[in-house]
Amino acid sequence: MAAIGQGNLTLLDLARAKNPDGSIASVVELLTKDNPLLEDMVWKEGNLDTGELVTFRSGLPAITWRRLNEGVAATKGDTAQYVETCGLMSGLSKIDVKLAELGGNAPAVRAGQDRAFITAMNVELENAIFYSSTKTNPEKIMGLAPRFDTKSIWTNQVISSTAGGAPSGTNQTSIWLVVWGDDKVYGVTPKGTQAGIEMIDRGQQLVRDVPGNEFFAWVTEFNWRAGLVVKDPRYVVRIGDIRVTGGTLAGTGSALLQNMASALERVKDLGGRPAFYCNRTIREYLRLQALDTSKTSMLNITTNVGSRPVLMFDEVPVRRSDSILNNEAALS
Q: Assuming Cys at both sites, which of 73, 217, 291, 295 could form a disulfide with 94, CB separation 3.0 to 4.6 Å?
């Protein structure tokens, strides 16, 4: 898990972010996670101040086979509605004015802290998209795992994998197939707002330390209102119960690849932005599988996407998400 800093920027923090000549160092963000998921997501402005009211077809109208000169009874289709709510992530940066002035480059010191906050909020949202639940944390958003957590309800959208052996304890992970689209699965922001992090420079303010003593600090406020809408569950497939600890993942042959092929058949269609998401343990395994041409021709590495090598399964990219855990419980 990424470490989260406590309190205000300290003199030690500042010293660690400087070069020997006193200039601001180019900080290597070691805690930054890859988040291609956020790059793939389609975003929309919601139709509610709190998120999105989703209307879906719950029943089709009845159709009549009729003879000539016979009437047809009027029928109608049924619809239902539910609300996908947005959560609000916030952060507050306070940097002692005198501390920021050391070295004569206060804007660079503030910019370094700003990047750290933005990185942290990206990481937090990606974690929430997979695992957060409004049932246990009403202030957050409803992620994917709490929606697709049982095989008995989602018989088509949840696959219990045999890769790595039988599920046991909390030693599992998942692969997700998501088709992003504005009528499928998408990110949402409240009505009247825009997607992205809001960064407000509050300028110099008189603030208090823990004992209650006052000092002037540069204050920056960060906010991000965001939610996840699964408008059509048929565009999500979870391959769960992939045992990664104490199992035999390395010797599963084509079992996991068969699961991925099944997932492609279980989404309604691939019209939109389809992508598989897995953690680095699974992606490393799949990359090694791609080198074994005797097992599959569906898994390959191509450089045709943005001039970068991309792992593809049957023309669908396989993305890495550091937010997907290796300690999931077995599916119910």
A: 217
Cα 127 from Cα 62, distance rounded (Å): 43
Closest Cα partner for 128 from 275, 319, 324, 282? 324
Element (H, E) at 266: helix 255-266
Between residues 209 and 196, the one the model is more confident about: 209
Listed by start position, the domains of the chain span: 11-45+85-320
Query: Hey, is 31 helix, strand or coil?
Result: coil
pLDDT tens by residue, 118-151: 888 889 999 999 999 999 999 999 999 999 998 8
pLDDT top residue among 327 and 255: 327
pTM: 0.82
Q: What share of the chain is helix, strand, coil (3-state, %, to 5)?
A: 25, 35, 45
Chain centre distance of CA 283: 16
